[in-house]
Amino acid sequence: MIAIPDTAGDIDGPWLERALAPRYPGVSVSGVEIIDRTEMTNSHARLAVTYRDDVGAPSSMFCKLLPASEKRRDLIAQTGMGPREVRFYNDIAPHTKLRVPSCFVALHDEADEAFILLIEDLIASQCTISDGSIGLDPDAAALALEDLADLHVRFAERAVREAHAPWVPAPMESDYGSVMLQHGLDQHRDRLTPCFAEHAELYIAHRPALHARWHEGPHTVIHGDTHIGNLFLDGNRTGFLDWGIINVSTPMRDVSYLMLMAMSIEDRRAHERDLLRHYLDVQRANGGPKISFDDAWHTHRLQAAYVVPACCQIVMFPDNEDPARRKFAQAFLGRAEAALEDLEVRAALRESLGI
Predict the structure, then answer these.
(1) Spatial separation of the C-alpha atoms in residues 48 and 281, rounded to whole Å
(2) How many domains does the chain have?
(3) Domain of residue 108, residue span
(4) What is the pLDDT of residues 232-262, one digit of tens each?
(5) Whole-structure pTM value
(6) Is the pLDDT at 134 greater than 90, yes or no?
(7) What are the CA-CA distances from residue 311 to residues 46, 185, 265, 328 (Å)?
(8) CATH number at residue 27
(9) Domain-located, residue 189
């Protein structure tokens, strides 16, 4: 087992040679340089790499590690997000049609949940990552749903999941979102629409029942977090990032969340019914379970309530938010507020759950 570096700055030539050798035999690294580095949920860095000989290894790559801060490092390690993403790249990505970043190194240390991912540098690949204000157009959304349908059908049978992805967990639930939503309501209610505030209160009061309803239906392996910030465009092809909360649940979570939180409000309003039909047709053609449009539409309306806890960090409205993050957050919250109104989610919750 290769020791996992604590920070991107600890990655030197000898370490990288050992890590890349299984994929690029004979690789000889002459230099590693950090192009830029940011602290997000995890620690991110772009690396420029030079080699003594050309064996096809990439000249730049994206590095993902646990946070540099010891306090946050322990907190994020406990979530298991990093190890799940490592396992996704090792066990699932090679066997799907999904466009995901090419993976060069994916390691995990079970002793302390440390991990490292060295994956394709999407900037160097000239892919596009939205700033949040621009969503998938209908054609790109349709292709993304086709790729998700392939993933969903592939793992629709329990026996297949147990044989090839036994580590993918059931959905996780905690009071994390409730605590942050309550803070948002207490401190910033005036910055939220009345409809969003009402749904936040419903979520806080009925969290277990909502989570149980959201995960009903046929189960499969899902991405679990298909908003615009976790996607990229390679030409007209949608790619999928950040597999840290991959789980086994209803495929409608991926479908609904992508349409609601990865498209512009106007495009979603104009095309969501047709896109939902398209997904159901592709899924059925691939041998997936039969789901009627009416049932899927009702589930879509219920799934829309999930946009509320998805906004739990955004409604904190932190004072030190940088302009890029603020722009993303405003667009994200706007999509969520529009979805709740357009899909009459309050009525759907009353009809389905009596709340």
Answers:
(1) 44
(2) 2
(3) 8-120
(4) 999 989 999 999 999 999 999 999 999 999 9
(5) 0.94
(6) yes
(7) 28, 12, 16, 12
(8) 3.30.200
(9) yes
